[in-house]
Amino acid sequence: MTATTSTRMRTPWADLIAAIGVDVHQSWPGLLLGLLRCLLLQPDVATLNPAWRAELASYFPQIDFHHFRVGDVIRMPLQCLWICLIRPTPVSSSGVIEGPWADITRLRRKCSNALTPLLTSIPALLLARRVHRTVDRDLGRMQATVEQYEESSFWDRQSVRYGSFIIAGVLGVMCITTPFNTLAQIVFVTLLWTIAMLIRRIPGPGPTLFLIVLSLTTSTRYLWWRIAYTLNWDESLDLMWGLVLLAAEIYTWIVLVLGYVQTAWPLKREPIALPTDQREWPTVDVFIPTYNEPLKVVTPTVYAALSIDWPRDKLNIYLLDDGRRDEFRQFAEEVGINYLRRPDNKHAKAGNLNHALGYTQGEFIAIFDCDHIPTRSFLQTTMGWFLHEPKLALLQTPHHFFSPDPFERNLGLFRHVPNEGELFYGVIQDCNDLWNATFFCGSCAVIKRAPLLQVGGIAVETVTEDAHTALKLQRLGYSSAYINLPQAAGLATESLSAHIGQRIRWARGMAQIFRLDNPFLGKGLNWAQRICYGNAMMHFLNGGPRLIFLTAPLAFLLFHAYVIYTPAVSVVLYVLPHMVHANITNSRIQGGHRHSFWAEVYETVLAWYIVPPTTVALLNPHMGKFNVTAKGGLVDKSYFDWHISLPYMVIVGLNLIGFTVGVGRILWGPGDEIATTLLNMFWTTYNLLLLGAAISVASETKQIRHTQRVALKIPAILHLPGGELVHCHTDDFSEGGVALAMDAAPTLKTDETVSVSLWRGAEEYVFPARVVGSAATRVRVRWELTSAEQNQALVQCTFVRADAWVSWSEGRLRDRPLNGLRKVMETGVQGYRRVARQSWPTGQLFFGKVVSGARYVASLLPRQPSIEVR
Amino acid sequence: MKSIGLIFFLFLISLLAGAEGMSESVPAPTPDSVPAPATPSPPTDVAQATVDATVNPDTLPAEIRYLTFAKLGQPVLRLRSSSGRGSVSFGIRADELVTKATLTLHFMYSPALIPVQSHIKVLLNDEIFGVIPITKEDAGHTLTQVFEIDPRFISDFNKIVLDFVGHYTNECEDSLHSSLWADVSGTSELQLSVRPVVQKNDLAKLPEPFFDARDFTRVNVPFVFSAAPSNSTLRAAAITASWFGKLATWRGARFSASLNHAPTGHAIAFATNTERPDFLNKMEPFSGPGLSILTNPGDGYSKLLLISGRNGDDLKIAATALVLGNTAMSGTHLSVTKAQQETPRRAYDAPSWVRLDRPMKFGELVESPQQLQGYSHVPDVIRMNLRMPPDLFTWRSRGVPVDLRFRYTPTIRTSESRLVTSLNDELVQAINLRSAGQGDNAHIRLPLQDDDLQGDEQSLLIPPFKLTARNQMQFAFSFVYQKEGSCRDAQVENVRAMIDPDSTIDFSGFPHYAEMPHIDFFTALGFPFTIYADLSQTAVIMPERPTEPDIAVMLTLLGRMGESTSYPATQVSVLGPRDITAFQNRDLLLIGSAANQNLLTQWGEHLPAMISGENRRISQPVRSVSFLYDWLGFDTEPDTTVATQETLRDNGQLAAVLGFESPVTPQRSVVAVTATTPGDMLQILDALDDAGLNKSMRGSVAFIHAGKVDSFLTGNTYTLGAIPFWTNVWFPLLHHPLLLALICVFTLLLLLYLLRRVYKAIAKTNVSDEDDE
Q1: Could you tell me what percent of chain A has a pLDDT over 70?
Q2: Which residues in chain A are contacts of B752 at CB distance < 8 A?
Q3: Per-residue b or e along A396-425, where b marks 16 or more CB atoms closer than 10 Å to that residue's CB
Q4: CB contact under 8 A, A175 and B747
Q5: Percent helix, strand and coil across chain A, each rounded to 5?
Q6: Which pLDDT does position A132 carry in this prediction?
Q7: Predicted local distance difference test score (pLDDT) of residue A450
Q8: Which residues pair with B307 in a beta bridge?
Q9: Selected residues 650-689 of chain A with any CB under 8 Å from a CB in chain B
Q10: Who has greater pLDDT, B588 or A86?
Q11: Rounded CA gap, A864 and A58, in Å?
């Protein structure tokens, strides 16, 4: 025994042990005992040799070798196990390892080598690894190959194309319908998943299409399986629940399919140059409708409109005041724009615009909501297409918001995670454009007068007049276009209730259109346009299905109804691929504009509130009224919107009951139901976290500033009172003031009068200001503007810059589906903590304990060591 | 001590007697070779052949029959509770007379019983004829008591009842007390002295005396032919045999063939003008199809049913008339004037099989609703037999839906009272009974197949179905006894439970599909021949010169098919090996020993196995090239040239049943029944009759050899029936996810290219073209 030990121990481990002071030449138990004694009773032994300590520290990052704690008894062995099983990064590239650690590395390699065959015996993994390597090696070549095949004249023959479609269809049906037993399904889905993970790395639209088709296959396979094999026709209760859930799933599937068709290929339309001869440029009326917004919200918009680069004689600006306020009339006169008011407020905004149509003559009409500040390049960017394409009746640009919406503000996501609207303007509208199905969004758009008059002006039948107008135009064969360049910016809604109110209106309006002027029916549209419009409307019907998903596991947990009548493992094997592929694909399509799983949060928040209006509108489209989205207000203190979150609290309560019952079922229920129960509890947990995130949004964070601060980096010069000039750039600005960043800030007293130079193109404007505060590299000043001209110039130098919003999404993290999931889940937990804080302030101590307890447990877990292998 | 000695003595006697009884002691009959001098066949008219009244009853061979309770279906009678009851039934054939009957009971009773008060009554057909007193001394010993039974009380169907009156205490008696017991051994026996009764020759009695429903033993009927019966004669015999098989039902039937000599016992003879047994030579030429009953010249008192006609076609008409029984028959001769018109049978419409076109009511599946009823707290298991075509393709079906309705007397305590439903002794579902549930119902599904990771490997050898060709659904009610304490619990056995005859089971909607060969399908239900209950698609191929065992095997197999379908094989054809053109579009039942049946050598390459001389040769499938090859599902073809050859030791006796695809018509089956010598073929019949051996015959080859069965699945397989085409698409892919994934990727790539072009084209029309203008 001793002999073998000594030979085995002739490694640095032996040296290490010897260094600690334990005799190497003894039997295993003695050795272990000695080591234990050393580590526990004389922990400072390890500290004697700093070299060893450093090495140990790199392998045991969570253990402080100066101060051992009780938990190390668990941490050490766990970490040892971890090191043995997991290959630490980075691994030496040379493969030849010198020095005292060579043996340890070899030992570890041996361990992992012993494990590798186990892992690699799964052929799929082996294949995956190999393909991964190949893909890494020549990604570009693969892409070229793909395109080369695609360009092949082989495809030009019609018979080949139709034949291929038929073959693909038949084989596709085969792939979708072939039933598998558990093992075969595991192999099948693993393979498809591996392929998706590989394809995901190849850039270009082709792989995106591939992922889309792959996702469609798995999802359709899932749906087929659900319909064909998982309904329990023997039990009417189960069947009822099952059909309800199935209906929700079918809805989701339809939206998924339509969404894929719609968003597979963004057109990415570029602006087109205007003729050089300005006489050919058409006349444009700018409409700025307002109803109850304060003047301060409207002024920047008006100034910006005045700054639009367009021949003065061909640009007429109209302030359409439905609030009939003299203050506005006066302002309009001051700045020299037209002012229109009408005797009644019939049909709200649509009526207002239609009224204005009767008093104006411009060939084109640009419409801005009173809080959407256009850039100077707005018309030059957009008008080119109208001159180029005579049938074009509508051109839309994205709505850009420089203030956070309630989600962003309350969850602290502003500018880290794309906001809710960004998916629509970043992807969907751009893709709609491919199908000639871009629709009007009420603002930041140009409409041609003649076609608009032809459809009777802005539509008034529904509360979403914009989409409906676009639909009417397209039914007459006019085309629409979209340029995905932010050419105007505005304020987002501040409070969650206002946000929800706005979405309710949209949902109602869309449901109304769906009933009154269904895009799938009627004349004039091609099938793709029908899909795009239909999908936009279908999207707002998601409330019901979402609520069903939030409560579906309760059917089993509370009522013991087998909603999906099949073993739990099959459910996992079919649902998971469906969800995983949909997520991979959507992350690929939308990643830049919507992070994974956030859609779930947005839908969850809205679900309860859009069910009644959409249902009512579908039943009776003429019910319901137009509510104006309130903007420019303040959330003057942090509070928790109990009213809004109440329905979610109820669902949370139900889910909690379900979860508890589930625990009971596991403990006392029949053994063969445990898997099903666990699955349903897992689902419930997911729902609970989703609801937590929704509740988190209802915790309104304080919004202090009256004017929104916008981050913008443009060059500026700070004029010091002494006449000294300091070159600097803006950090952020608002209508009220600006923050300037410089290498070294001069010493300035508060309230000292300075002036700041900004540029509009080559023109320099100097604005008087007063210092608010200064730091080492930063000076904050408050504007001291005296005239309307100055105000206008400021707007022109800031908001109106053509490139003001273009680089908005720079520096944002790439979407990674699992990260998205983690973030959403964290937000969910946070939501519950917020609720707890609000409802049970004294419970903070308890929660603190829970959290620190959880942290402690987490600290026991092994960690990935960062080893530098020489 | 004295009683023990007596018991031992009696036991010895009973053993000896039992052994004798087992051998079906047949008294020495008159020799076979004796011609029929005693049978004065009237020269003018066969119909006038009348009873030979001159037979002296005393000269007829008397027989002593020993029937143990075990043989009568009661291994042991357990008499329980204060009024336990046990019974044994037996029947007496109409052509037999019991002259003496003795009942010997071996029993033991509880020492706890109070003498005088406790006793056992012995009843025959509700008439009490003896009492077993309970005595203190004899308690706990094996006792024997002999009762003489007055033969006059013995009728056609008889029931011996043992009525137990037991008491263990005088106060507060629990009628269900465990000390109340008396067991009557299965070795208890009934000793009957029987002698034949000579009856009048009368067709009206048919099927008696050839088949008597009172006889609970296997039906044994010899068939008599001329020295070289033609195939058309054999066809008539086949039809007749299947009818007897149908009548015999669970008793089983065995037919022997006598070529040109009269056997003893009741027999059936076939004669035409050209071919008839020599002893009928004196008869007038037949003028048309006819049935007559004569005295069997073989022994001089048994009956001979003569099926006659001018030629084989007449015989068929006569046999059909006999088996369909539509004609009123009486007298000794009946001329069948015209062929029976029967409606042609459709596939799978055998009367005893479950219906596949609609749900079936339980009432249709049992003979009387009483069979669905149970008495007492733990009633006998209610059993319902289901015969189902074995080729029902039930893959991925969730099971056969059963809409079960049942009634029961209200239970007092519900917790432990339940109805347990089983299928072939495997638990399907247990349902708790409710206290008030007068009429309850439940939807259950009979499981069909274990659809899981395992179970694919041996699916051809061991059918993966829980539901097989012959099934039994079992419904076991159990009620809890209500005990409220001593002296207060008068237990009344008034509990009843019943499965409603209106309950339904639904076999409809399954496609027919089976991968063949499946010898077990053949042994269980005569499949695939019985798909058409009248065997209209079946040709039996006899050897050129059939021997007695060949014919016996053929007749017995046909009898089994009649039993399977409950319909006589009226449309079966019997052919010789040369009628190859007639083999087309028929399932073939090939009969003959290896040397005798030319077709076996002629079709050698199609056979999964061969018997030649003392060797047997089996075609083995060759192992595939690689694991991947197998996994991708490219089936390897069995190589028939490579074979294992085994020389049989012992005396080389070997019989075999082979299944293979018809070399004449694809998708038609051949079942070959063969052996080294004709005599060995009878081994097959023995194996079929043995429940254990019968079950072990499966695959494509079953060798029967010295009471053992070896089954193999070798040779080519083929399929029967059609499955929906999509299942056809799915089936090969089922176990090959890799293949499907490859197909999937290919499809996706194809779609990718196609869609890319579409999208690109659209994007171009929207943007680029206009740029070029």
Answers
A1: 82
A2: 206, 209-210, 213
A3: bbbbbbbbbbbbbbbbebbeebbbbbbbbb
A4: yes
A5: 55, 10, 35
A6: 62
A7: 92
A8: B270, B291
A9: none
A10: B588
A11: 10
Sequence-ordered alpha helix ranges (H) in B272-327: 312-324
pLDDT tens for each residue of A212-225: 999 999 999 999 99
Q: Which amino acid, A467?
A: A
The edge-to-edge listing of strands for the beta sheet with B609-612 is B609-612, B615-619, B643-647
Q: Read off the DSSP letter of residue A435.
A: T
Q: Which residue from A165, A209, A272 is facing B752, i.e. has the nearest CB?
A: A209
DSSP string, A71-112: THHHHHHHHHHHHHHS--BSPPSSS---STTHHHHHHHHHHH
Residue B52 CB partners (closer than 8 Å, separation 6+): B38, B39, B40, B198, B295, B300, B301
Q: Residue A48 pLDDT more than 70? A: no
Which residue among A321, A405, A466, A517 is the active-site one?
A: A466
A238 is catalytic: no
Q: For chain B, what percentages of helix, strand and coil (3-state, to nearest 5) are there?
A: 25, 30, 45
Residues A607 and A546 sit within 8 Å (Cβ to Cβ) = yes
Report the residue from B730, B757, B770 with minimal CB separation from A178.
Answer: B730
**Record: contact B763-A265, CB cut-off 8 A:** yes
| Strand blocks (E) in B542-586 | 573-575
DSSP conformation class of A290: E
> Is this model's pTM higher than 0.80 or not?
no
Q: What is the pLDDT of residue A795?
A: 83
- The answer to whether B441 and B405 are in contact (CB under 8 A) is yes
Token digits of residue B708: 């053992």
**Amino acid symbol at A458:** I
Q: How far is B504 from chain A (nearest CA, A)?
A: 14
Respond yes or no on whether ipTM tops 0.85.
no
For the stretch B318-343, pLDDT in tens is 998 888 876 677 888 888 877 667 78
A592 burial level (CB within 10 Å; 0-12, 13-18, 19+):
middle
Nearest to A832 by CA among A664, A703, A691: A691
Burial B209-237 (b: 16+ CB within 10 A, else e): bbbbbebbeebbbbbbbbeebbbbbbbbb
pLDDT at A91: 41
Q: Which residues contact A761 (CB under 8 A, 6 or more apart)?
A: none
A311 vs B600: CA distance, rounded Å: 105
Average pLDDT over every residue of A534-556: 90
Share of chain A above pLDDT 90, in %: 18
- The amino acid occupying position B486 is S
Per-residue three-class SS string for B659-683: EEECCCCCCCEEEEEEECCHHHHHH
Query: Computed over its alpha carbons, how large is the radius of gyration of chain A?
Result: 32
Of B626, B548, B541, the residue nearest B576 (C-alpha): B541
Residue ranges of E strands in A735-798: 737-741, 753-760, 763-774, 778-783
State the DSSP H helix or E strand holding residue B247, giving kind and residue range, or none if neither: helix B231-248
Q: Max Cα separation, chain A?
A: 107
Instruction: Round to whole Å and give the CA distance between A458 and A472.
Output: 9
**Which residues of chain B approach chain A closer than 8 Å at the C-beta?**
396, 401, 443, 445, 451-453, 726, 729-730, 733-738, 740-741, 743-757, 759, 762-763, 766-767, 770-771
Task: Enter the tokens of residue A699.
Answer: 């915790």
Residue B663 burial (C-beta neighbours within 10 Å; 0-12, 13-18, 19+): middle
Can A136 be counted among the known catalytic residues? no
Say if residue A758's pLDDT is above 70: yes
Q: Which two tokens stand for residue B612?
A: 């030649």
Q: How sure is the predictor about B103, in pLDDT bands with cuts at 50, 70 and 90?
A: very high
- B472: left (phi > 0), else alpha (psi -120 to 50), else beta? beta
Q: Please give the angle made by the CA atoms of B386, B387 and B390, to the nearest 5 degrees.
A: 130
